[in-house]
Amino acid sequence: MSLDPQPRLSEDDVARGLRLLVVEAAFSGSGAALTTGVILTAFALHLGASNMMIGVLASAPFLAQLLQLPTILLVERIRQRKRIAVLTSIAGRLMLAVMAGTAFFTGMTPLLVFLGAQIVLCALGAVGTCAWNAWMRDLAPENRLGDVFAKRTVWLTAINLVLGLAAALALDLTGEHSTTRDAVFAGMFVLGCVTGLISAQIVAAMPEPLMPPPGGPVRLIALVRQPLRDLNFARLLVFVGSWQFAVNLATPFFTVFIVRQLQFDVSFVMLLSVVSQMANILALRGWGALSDRFANKSVLAVCAPVYILSIVAMIGASQIGNRDLVKLWLIVLHLFMGASVAGVTLAATNIALKLSPRGSATAYIAASATVTAVAAGLAPIIGGLLADFFARRKLELLLRWSSPQAAFSLPITLTSWDFYFLLAGLLGLYAIHRLTLVSEQGEIERREMVGELLSETRRTIRNISTVAGLRAATSVPVSLLRDARVRRRLRRAQAATRDD
What we know:
The chain is mainly alpha-helical. It is 76% helix and 4% strand. Strands 1-2 form a two-stranded antiparallel sheet. The longest helix has 32 residues, at 108-139.
């Protein structure tokens, strides 16, 4: 199996590569499902990690992306993106076996080994990702980006769903700090290592188009300046940075908040993760179709506010006294977050690819990854450093309504992680404002889009008792978006005629 690029790809080669791209997601998704997110945080808590350690673990995948900058030189000089992606994937996935071994030891040493292996894994992953993204930009046809990556993400989410349920069951059947739970965590990471190596083998079978000949000596500073001189792409970078900082200030600590502050089991956190992934699967194909039909920015304009408001609404979990209602509240919020983050992730990835020129996408994609790395990497570290500060502080508000018949009061108390959710919401609003400054061909004006959505909602409510009405209430009215786009073009044509 050759790792060399091919000078010419036929339509069959491209089709085979796109099929393998979807199949590979099943194995890389398995590795990620068993070794990242909630499970990674739960494993660290099981080993006795502090809030600062959790913040460092959450920031490692992002800060490691800074290695994409020197990787640009590596890609441009070697010009063999598949070779770089495969070799770094193999070496990185072997670190999961090292992390599995720490489950059977106690003390600070295994924690440091665990953290070190995670950092090496993330560093190698960043190098491979830089080559992978530039490779995919030249392999996947532009008009199929949304569909192909939506299918791939559906596979990833489905695997996360199945393995998430299995992990929740396994953790629920084992006691905290027991040797059985040690074995469960170790088994997850060993299995993640195996599936990751299979993923690397599939990637090695995918075709890579030959990169165009270099135009001259490759200079890192010149490559970095290229996307920064593109005003529209620079505006996108501001949105990406502010958005990633807002989201990652709070979300890495969801598990800590639910386990330590709300006193729920890790298995319930896994159940919430499964709920979020189910919503993600149900919504993803629709967002992919919308991003291809209209514009990624239009999808972001809908999904980003929903996701941010859901994070802020996490404050409600610490205000409700009934634990059953708290569970219901968290489940509903994770449904909204799962559906909205599907659109945010897909559209943010696609818009960065779409605004990157073919043949020289490496610098643009690396610039986006670098901004993401700095913003998303610093946020959880700052969150971990400030954890003790906010833990010792409290903000109490009392909302009181009085009438001649009765009086009603609603006390609101913000403590610890509640402050993070509120800060994330404020920063998220700024990020959404920055998104409005980015231009993308085919985008729909927000005011017109919101007006049409509200009109459709009012019409749907009248038929809410019917099955058809319920179905319409839970779907995105694509026909209305299409009509809004047509009317917008008609107005432009009429204005051009008047000017003539």
